[in-house]
Amino acid sequence: MNAALNSGLYERLQEMELIEAHVLAEAFSQAEESSSFLGASLLQNELISENTLGYIVGDVFHLPYVNLREVSIDTKAMQRLPRAVAVAQQALVFAEDEETIKLAGSNVEYDELVSFLEKKTGKTVKVFFTFSGPLQQSYTLYDENISEVFTDMLSVYAEKATGENSDPPVIKIVDLIFQHAYSKNASDIHIEPKDDGTTLLRFRVDGIMHDVVELPAFLTPLIVMRIKIMALLRTDEHQEAQDGKISYEVDAETLDIRVSIVPVVNGEKVVLRLLSERSRKFSLRDLGLSEAGLKKVQAAYKNPHGMILATGPTGSGKTTTLYSVLKELNSRSVNIMTIEDPVEYEIENVNQMQVTHTGDVTFASGLRSIVRQDPNIILVGEIRDEETADIAINAAMTGHLVLSTLHTNDAVTAFPRLIDMGVEPYLVSSTVNVVIAQRLLRKICTSCRVSRTVQTEELKVLDPRYTPLLQGRTMYVGKGCPVCGHSGYRGRVGVFEVLVMNDDLRAAIADKHDASYLHTLAVKSGMKTMMQDGVEKVAQGITSLEEVIRVLHD
Which one is the CATH code of 282-440+493-527: 3.40.50.2300, 1.10.3720.10, 3.40.50.300, 3.30.365.10? Predict the structure, then answer.
């Protein structure tokens, strides 16, 4: 099917002129040689969005397209097809009304399935095309109640009903934890021992912690042991912290799982950070930068030397932003080197070093070595101390483009922070090209988004400068649905301050003016504050006012 589909897709894309002709021709040629799907290559190289590709492929098949990640799936309608049948047929009933059943699938030949459903229900079946990834993810809705699934598995464990060739239940239980976390778009898994001997399983989804299920005491050490084995950690060590890494296959995707185990009063606490290929595919445009902010960042990274700083607290997306810049800069014509703690994603053609916990490689020592490796572009995971700051600033002054992060609350505070580390003010003002301050806000779920009118009382919590942006406007909220786990939110978006260095700021930094004065100058020169960016995203229906206040209100 790939050959016919590729030809049809190639012809449509040629007609639409969405991709440069020579780039499209090369991708088509490679897909034909490898007998692979042309669309997969286009998505991987970020030449087209998933939704645009879906609509075009659907058009080739003469089917409407649906993205199952963006619709509210009727879990009752799903039961029209047992899970085993749905998986075998690569299809899913996602909606139903009095006259019609809506069936989504990643194949094109569903005549027998359509006939079966129509005879069974007496309704018309409408078939939609969808991609395999969202389809696989949707199957987890069959097991919406993870507590029930655990209860079933634990009963099997209690009966010791394991055959010689079957996996031990603890392996299946750990697999279930990983798969369920992945299906819920969790960024972190927490396994926390409690006073009564039980253990609480929690997921962090879109920055918010959620209790998932309570695990019985006898199971906890087995789960911790299994994770230690997978991460190649010492299974006999229970009194010291251990860090490791697991590569785990789920839905034809490789998850990089960072493992942290620390001893606590009641046992050992495990935190797992899930880094998926979905997270790696962000481009700068996907992060939430405004058009004006994007142009400022692009102008900064096109400069062959100087420094780009991303600032914000832990978990605000700083590393993702810098990785997105690296993706734009990555080519065979430059030497890119990084020093990170730890290396979150491996990037092709980029030489990445990792800080060691023994102290043999620190940010400062690693950076000193990198400077001797003839780099064009250097990424320093974080400027933490005076020595690292000094080397990074000097590298930026001597013909290198340096990218790094700082823990500061806003953009202008980056300058006093560097000066406090012992960097001379004139060096700060002459090397820093741009500072990007950021936070992450939850996005309103598009599957259950509803509008409402802004109430005057609500706007009193805002600075008067920003109330006109929402006065008399329609706002949106998420009602809650199975797609978003009934939270009303799904996914996150960045809010940014992009501060570009200019002559007024250089003079103020050299004179050691405080952050308040620098902030006034920056806004006067056109910097949009994070609060303004957030309020604008409320007006655009991307997030809610409550979420902006929760994350940004002092």
Answer: 3.40.50.300
